Amino acid sequence: MNAEDPTAAFRVEARELLDQVEQALLDLSYRLDDAALIDSVFRGLHTLKGSGAMFGFDSLAAFTHHIEGAFDRVRKGRARATAELVATVLAARDHMRALVEGDAISADGEAILARLAAAVDAPAVEPAAPVRPVAPDTAATGGWQLSFRLPRQALAHGTNALALLDELRALGDCTLVAHRGAIPPLDQLAERDCHVGWAATLRGDVPRAAIDDVFLFVLDDMELSVTPLPPVGTAAGARGAAAAPDRAAPETRAPRRVARAVQGELVRVPAARLDTLMDRVGELVIAQSRLSQLAGDRHDLVLRSVAEEIERLAAELRDTMMVLRMVPVASLFGRFRRLVHDLARETGKAIALETAGESTEIDKTVSERLFDPLVHILRNACDHGLEEAGERIAVGKPATGIVRLAAYQAGGAAVITVSDDGRGIVRERVRAKAEASGLVAPGQALADAELLALIFHPGFSTAAAVTNLSGRGVGMDVVKREIERLRGTIELVSTEGAGTTITLRIPLTLAIIDGLLVRVGTGRYVIPLAAVEECLELTAEEDRRSLGRSLITLRDRLVPFLRLRELFATAAPPDPHQKIVVVATGRERVGLVVDQIIGSHQTVVKALSPFHQGIGTFSGATILGDGGVALILDVAQLVARGQQAESALGQAA
Amino acid sequence: MSDRPPSLTVPDAAAVIAWDSHGELEVLTFDVGGESFAVEAVLVRELVELLPETAVPGAPALVDAMVNFRGRIVPVADLRAAFAMPAAGATADSRIIVVELTVADETLLLGLRADRVHEVATLTEASSEDAPSVGVRWPRAYVRRLVRWRDDVIVLPDLVAILTPALGGAALTC
Q: Does one domain contain both A463 and A351?
């Protein structure tokens, strides 16, 4: 942790570069002749090649060199960007990623290079398309008059100004004059900044684009003005005469990305340090609540006011800490663009991914754990939901299917919806499948919602044929379980013929929950408050009556319940007035019988040690105000257990 | 995950005792259930008086509780369960030895219940021997060596072998 490994730093940077390249490529696949995107991909590849070689990733540098070379041809208009080329370079990006991580298979690389050669060469029959505005290239001039100034931080960022000047000189007969006017007095001189500007007279038949190429990597931030010089023969006095009116006005580039400088500085921090900080804040909150308790017991006004001050600060610190761990869902959504691109190619369907609400922020851990379930939902939408283009046109829909991924915040939760405009869920097929597998009795009356809920049942899959994409035995039940593990809920709405929408509701953070503190025997447990529906008393009469069965009547509904005392093998005598806490996930409810309800309590969640993770009844633990430890109940698991007990009872009866 | 048969085979590296170049080893000695045990001093993070424990229903008997150790939730193991000793309550001399282990590349703190903690002692390899195959009531795999120390015999338990069955698959190293 102390000595930063430079190759590790390179890996981090390379991953980011590759992600940028991927995003640019995906954009490019929609706008195949966007010169700015082509440049951006090229620049990313070039930087990767350079720094790869610098850090000793030679095979990466060599491979990237080929890709960069191919892209350079596209950039110069000698080859055309095609969907096939973009797909090949995307595959190449994956290979580069593997090279960065050190687990690449060299045969893959060769195959990609072969594909690439085919993709670049194939459309060469077409005349070189005007990928970038080439008009100024061919201006018949005797050369150019340049005036330029590098970005101020160019030197600090590793640009070699002398090398640029040399490159410029190599283009033709060049006279360079340095402008020293902007150099500040010695005492104000920042020695890392570049203060010098240059004027250059470049004679000879030099294309305009060649000049841009010299400055390719600093072009966005530099000042550059280029004026064509008249052909040598008419040079005399032509300077002020504005000889060629169409091109004479100096084409000045002002720095394009001023906004970037204003964005403020970012600091990269390892996630582990944030976790440590979070732990400390958690400890502080615990220590603070002990202090508040002590202060409350004494009649010392000064102590009380200090305790209140610390309480406020601790709460603010905790909120700030939470925000630090939040990341926009944009990074999560970004990863799906590639998935949908690949799915579209695999299925042969035309699929467009629309996203909305990318700036919605969720906890980093939540974001990571949402990835797999969302992949599954998206695969389902693309594979089963959307129809083939022909089928879509036949029912009057546009040929391109749309998958929409949206996020927004509602209260303490983030809501993520995945919707498609495909064929929707065909109720008859769901029913047929459920009847075939014995989930429902033939002809049994089911509400629409109940029928759709069957999709979340373990082992349920309606795909007629198991394809490469979905239907691998991992069904929506796994998705549902994973979402519930995140203390979230999943909802499904589907209209036959019009599409399906799946809504995920996820708590913004896993680090803190509101909990209901209860006592069972001598142990204290926390029930996540979000799952609690109501609390009521288990009357002595009901208690007696319910011995031997595990159902109670709650407002004319039968609710299964679990006696936590039995579940936890509690030896201490039961309280005379036991309570039932009714918890629910989705539509399923279960009552938990406890000895005492202590109160609600905001809780910092701590992970269980590996010795206790496998037990299943608990999702974590927390430290209470008095320093004791309480276990947090895993409501989803308990509900499942209650339902099992109920169905076992139903079968016995 | 938990119904996987517990594997008692000891990884070679973990069973090895890191005697230094003089054939000596610094350990902390303690009593559990009338026997003397020792753990490598380098593993010991801290000694604490008994903390209020929280029982974990459904957990393996070996690691059936946890404590709040400076804001961290630390599982507590009882060697009695591994060595088939009768359970016993805490006394004024009882302590928890907090040791640092590695599970799947992450550091894990674990509390070991001790009836009494003695001292940091230097054991010598010359006075150590393998556990005899007869005359001892414990599983042999749980003992790395027996070491004579003054008038006593000290057990160097194999924590990896003892704790691995309670882990459900994660790789543990000391």
A: yes
Q: Which residues on chain B are in Cβ contact (under 8 Å) with A628?
A: 52, 54, 68
Secondary structure element (H or E) that encloses residue A35, with its range? helix A35-54
Please report whether residue B36 resides in a domain: yes
- State pLDDT tens for residues A253-303: 444 444 444 455 777 788 778 878 877 887 787 778 778 878 888 888 999
Q: Answer whether A567 touches B (CB < 8 Å).
A: yes
Of A523, A606, A615, the CB nearest to B54: A523
A432 C-beta neighbours (distance < 10 Å), count: 13
Asked if A560 and A469 sit in the same domain, the reply is no
Does B68 sit within 8 Å of A627, measured CB to CB? yes
The residues pairing with A528 across neighbouring beta strands, listed in sequence order, are: A515
Looking at the fold, whether A191 and A86 belong to one and the same domain comes out as no
Least Cα distance to A74 among A49, A42, A114, A43 occurs for A42
CA distances from A306 to A50, A289, A303 (A): 57, 13, 5
**Can you tell me the distance from the alpha carbon of A349 to that of A383, in angstroms, rounded to the nearest whole number?**
9
| Interface residue A623 vs chain B (CB under 8 A) | yes
Radius of gyration of chain A (CA): 33
Q: Is A612 on the interface with B (CB under 8 A)?
A: yes
Assess whether pLDDT exceeds 90 at residue A128. no
List pLDDT tens digits, range A515-559. Answer: 899 999 889 999 988 888 889 888 777 776 666 567 777 777 788
DSSP, residue by residue, A162-209: HHHHHHHHHHSEEEEEEE-TTPPPGGG--TTS---EEEEEEESS--HH
Distance of residue B72 Cα from the nearest chain A Cα, in angstroms: 8
Q: Are residues A102 and A20 both part of a single domain?
A: yes
Beta strands in A538-640 (DSSP E): 551-554, 557-563, 579-585, 588-594, 596-604, 618-623, 629-633
Q: Which residues of B touch A631 (CB under 8 A)?
A: 54, 56
Q: Which residues contact A78 (CB under 8 A, 6 or more apart)?
A: A124, A128
Per-residue pLDDT for A157 more than 90?
Answer: no
Q: How many CB pairs under 8 A join A and B?
A: 75
Planar angle of CA B95, B100, B106, nearest 5 degrees: 145
Share of chain A above pLDDT 70, in %: 85
